[in-house]
Design goal:
Shape: globular
Strand content: 15-25%
Radius of gyration: 20 Å
Number of helices: 10
Number of domains: 2
CATH class of the largest domain: Alpha Beta
């Protein structure tokens, strides 16, 4: 008899676990009218998942993903540690998650998780109670992906709509369509097809558990804000962030990395006040370039403001906010932290984490 791979499923809530109080045609009001299932309850709702793996449900918390942040990221890292310790033969881990901030949690775990098994985040665009929900098949495919031998060493993954994406490349692109998660410029890593899990490429950046960051001993993060560029921006928001005590500010700049004139002045004031400044772009795709006037003002830049541009540099505001203080914990921007920032295309605003490093060289 063939032994099924063992996969832990950790539930954090989200649409994939949502049960509407209105009925199967409700695709919009379920967050206020219904409730969310725990991991074991969702697994029981879709017993087909037991045909592809021995599933170990782990209750965590059932909340909308807009309520997920650093405390939950840290707790997930610790939960993954415990799952592997309790089950040394574990093949992989699946994290149930709402899609609103799924990419943020995926990126955070890609930097901070300390287990060698694959971690796959999965969500759904339609609640589990909907007439044509994607929750069940997404769950099955995420478990299949986590259990796949080829997923080892791929880092943290995201699996929805039969597509497998890299955590450091993916973003949500549609409010309601099933094909919402996309990896601009690079595309999917693979597909969860009916006959097998098929991978087409491997990320070249360092993957968990061999990353620089370890948040397990941190209690909180410093304030890091994101200033969005727009026509006529006079720097008011940037100055408000400085006044609020921001230790870092990310510029979600015009492509390919430009600020409005008055906004540039505000960023110079931030640098003069000792705030770490890093640039990204609001464009959604492509590298971010380092304008000389920002470099002269002392701002950090993901492409390497100190004459070491990196052809791989693609950093969106969310990822820069995760990475800005990785090496320096919002003390100062170094070439090391700039190089780590070079991770992903510019798209949306999320959270940057002040992370303790293990002293290794980031990549």
């Amino acid at each position: 008899m063939t032994t099924k791979p063992k996969v832990a499923v950790i539930g954090t809530g989200g649409t994939i676990t949502a049960i509407s109080g209105i009925g199967p045609l409700d695709l919009t009001e379920y967050t206020s009218s219904g409730h969310m299932l725990e991991a074991d309850e969702l697994v029981a709702r879709y017993p087909e998942v037991a045909s592809v793996a021995e599933v170990i449900p782990i209750r965590f918390k059932a909340v909308p993903s807009t309520a997920v942040g650093f405390p939950e990221w840290k707790a997930l890292v610790l939960a993954a540690d415990k799952a592997v310790a309790d089950h040394p033969d574990l093949a992989g881990i699946v994290v149930l998650h709402g899609t609103a901030s799924l990419e943020e949690t995926a990126y955070a775990l890609s930097l901070t998780a300390k287990v060698a098994v694959p971690i796959v985040l999965v969500g759904a665009q339609r609640p589990a109670s909907a007439l044509s929900t994607d929750a069940g098949l997404n769950l099955v495919n995420a478990v299949r992906t986590a259990a796949a031998p080829d997923a080892r060493g791929m880092g943290v993954l995201v699996c929805l709509n039969d597509e497998i994406q890299c955590a450091r490349e993916v973003t949500k692109t549609s409010t309601g369509r099933l094909q919402t998660f996309r990896s601009p410029d690079f595309g999917v890593l693979g597909h969860a097809d009916g006959d097998r899990i098929a991978f087409y490429r491997r990320p070249i950046r360092r993957a968990v558990p061999d990353t620089e960051f370890d948040i397990r001993g941190l209690d909180a993060l410093p304030r890091v804000d994101i200033a969005y560029s727009y026509a006529g921006n006079d720097g008011t928001a940037t100055r408000a962030f400085i006044a609020a005590g921001a230790q870092g500010i990310i510029g979600a700049a015009f492509a390919p990395g430009l600020l409005a004139p008055a906004e540039t002045d505000a960023f110079k004031e931030a640098v003069a006040a000792g705030v770490v400044v890093a640039m990204s772009s609001r464009a959604g795709s492509g590298r971010v370039f380092a304008p000389a006037k920002l470099r002269e003002a002392g701002g950090a830049h993901p492409a390497g403001a100190r004459a070491d541009p990196d052809a791989r540099s693609r950093a969106n505001p969310s990822d820069v906010r995760h990475l800005l203080t990785g090496q320096t914990r919002v003390q100062k921007a170094t070439r090391t932290s700039q190089r780590v920032i070079a991770g992903k295309a510019t798209r949306i605003a999320v959270r940057t984490m002040s992370l303790a490093t293990n002293g290794s060289t980031p990549r």
